Structures are given as structure tokens and as C-alpha cells.
Amino acid sequence: MNKSKLFITSCVSLVTTAMVFAVRGDIEPAMRDAFQLTAGQMGLIWSPAFWAFTVAIFISGALVDLVGMRTLHVLSGLGYLVGVALVLLAPYPTSPVASIFDTTGTTLLYAGFFIMGLSQGLVEGVINPLIATIYSGEKTRRLNRLHAWWPGGMIIGGLLAYALTGFGAVWQVKLSLILLPAIAYVLLALSLEYPRTERVASNIATSDMWKEAGKPLFLLLFVCMWMTAAVELGPDQWFPSVMSSLTGLEGILFLVYTAGLMFVIRTYFAEVAHTSPIGTLLACSMLTAIGLYWLGSLQPGASAVTAFAAATIFGVGKTYLWPTMLGVTTELFPKGGALLLGLMGGTGMLSVAVALPIMGARIDQYGPGAALRLIAGLGVILTVIFGGLYLYLKGRGGYRAVDISST
To answer: Fewer Cβ neighbours under 10 Å: the N or C end of the chain?
Structure first.
């Protein structure tokens, strides 16, 4: 088993997943105009990507031990190819649509993003237990470094999309970029041997894995994942169009900038989250609340300096949320295996599927700033919860990772 190549393959598949996110955000205005959709309708078309992500990650969390991680990893790459093809083949409607299912074109968009969402869920359902298994002694650190390639993929996708804009490329060309890393990681996965998950290798019974899901602390983390994911990923998907409206600058640059912050911090400062996971989540919740509220309070024509200052606070704040939530889950509940990681990742994307149309409707009714301020409220709630959890664990001797062999 080649740990380094498995890690690289996982990173490339996560880059693909993130490129979908970045490119989709960049081409949103062009697609909305071409298919004659409102922001709310565009949010509804995007939402199946997140619903499907949720379904796929739930299923993969339960099946990864039976089917095998390599099989699911390869299937995810093939799904990207099919999903992109459906979107590229979607014909434009001849007039504004009352329902996204009224025309063949918008229905194909829905189906294409749904299949890409399935692929994103399969990727997340495979790479998290894979990395937790091959690096069982440093899970939070390694998961943060792996998930550095989420913003890394957004940087790659965002910069390529921005460059293609300069050449006058149509949205179809930008979307086709996703095919390149998808093909690359499928070929890599086919050439590698994948291990059994940590739970299976430790002979933990399936019934014991399911029991972990009912523990009160896990249920609290499960609820928090609804909010941490919405705070991080909900604004990200609307970021290019929202920031363009507020500042008049190319909105994709803000997405690339915050992604750059996340990449550097996750890659070179992963030890911060490893040292104090709950304290890290507490600090990140406060920063995201401040950053989103500030961004949402910007007036049209706001200076670039002010906009980037607010984006910096938001970018730093959201950095550790997703991978640290996964790291805490697998460290405190190692017997939960791929199932609990799947539940956490799935509920995170489910929350985004709910948040996107809500934000879209908010943008249509009150403007882009109101949508960001609404999500900022979740950061305030998370600050209270993680603050209480930090004090609770401190009173019990502090945060300690659980050794699967001692449970």
C-alpha cells in the first residue's frame, strides 16, 4: 500500500470537487441569463448537487466497508464525466420559465448537477475514512492538510475561469475544465491498492459502529455541522455574484483570495487545529460571524480595501470548520468509522442544499447583503455552543482523542 499516492489521489479528487464549486459560482450569471432564470430558480437548480452529495455520502458511509473504497472512488470520477456532459447538452429555453422542470434544458441542468453532487458525496465518503485509516495517529492534522485542497481546487478553478473570461470563453468551456482532474484521479485510483477502514481492521462490530451515532456528544456535533457547513459553503457558492454586485470588481477574485487563505493555513498551520480542536472551532465561529456581517453590510461601490479586509476575516474564520469537525468526530468516536464521517459530511451538504435557495430568495427580495447577514447569525449561535462545549470538556480534564484499541 502506497500511502503517499493514496493521499495524492485523494487530494486530486478533492480538487475536482472544489473546482465544480468554484466554476459553478463563476458561470452562474451567464447560465442564469442563458436559461432565463431568477436567482431563486438558480439556487433550486444548484440544490440537487447538495441533496445528491448528502445521499451519496450517507450511502458510501454505510457501504464503503462492503464495496471497497477504490470502487466508490472510481465511480465518483465517472459520475463527474456524465454530470458535466448533461449540463453541456442542455438546450436553452425560448422564454422565462415558471418552473425549472418546464423545459428540457433546465431539467437537464438539474439532473447534471445532481449527478455531480453524487460524485462529490462519493469522494467525501471515501477520502475521509481513507485518510483517517492510513494516518490513524494524526487524524485531525492530516484531514486538515487533505482539505487544504478544497480551497486549492477553488483557487485552480477560479483562476482558470477568470483567465478564460479574459479570452471571452463561454461558460461551457469553463465547465469542461472539471473533466481534466476527474480523468486523472480515476486513472490513479485504478492503479492503487486501497486498505480496509480502521474500524474493520480493528475488528469493531457493525452494531458497535451504529451505537456511536446515538451518543449525546455526537448528536450535538451533528447539529453543529448543519450550521458550520452553511456558514462556510453557503456564502461561498454565491460569493462571486454577490461580491460583484457589492463592489463592482470581479467577484471570483474574492473567492480565490479567501480560498488562498484557507489553503495556506490548512497546509502550514494544521497543527493549530490538532492542538486545540474545540478552541479552534470556537475562534472560527466568532470570526465567520464578524466577517459575514461586515461583508453583508458593505454598500454598493465599497472600496476594494474594505471589501478585502472583511473577506480576510471571513476567509480565516471558515478555514478550519469542515476538516476539524470531521477530525473531532473520528477522534472522539473512532468506533463510528466511515458511518459517522458520512453522517457528518452528509448533513453538512444537506444544510447547504437548504441554505442556497434561502439565500437566493433573500437576494431576490432584499439584496445580496441581507443574505450574508442572515448566515452570519449562525456563526453567533455556533460561538455560544462551542464556547459551552469548550468549558464542559475543560472541566472534565480537557479534550482527548480516543484510542480505538482501548474502547
So the answer is: N
CA 336 to chain centre: 21
| pTM recorded for the entire structure | 0.79
**Where in the chain are the domains?**
3-406
Read off the pLDDT of residues 324-375 as tens digits, 9 standing for 90 and up: 998 899 888 888 877 888 889 888 878 887 888 888 888 888 877 888 899 9
C-alpha cell at 162: 477568470
- Given the C-alpha cell 423545459, which residue does it identify? 103
Q: Which three cell numbers stand for residue 135?
A: 494516518
Specify the CATH number for 3-406; select among 1.10.10.10, 3.40.50.300, 1.20.1250.20, 2.40.10.10.
1.20.1250.20
Helical spans, DSSP H, in 148-276: 149-166, 171-176, 179-190, 198-201, 206-212, 216-247, 251-268, 270-275
Q: Which three cell numbers stand for residue 63?
A: 457501504
Side chain identity at 261, as an amino acid letter? L
Torsion of CA 353, 357, 362, 363, to 10 degrees: 110
CA distance 228 to 210: 24
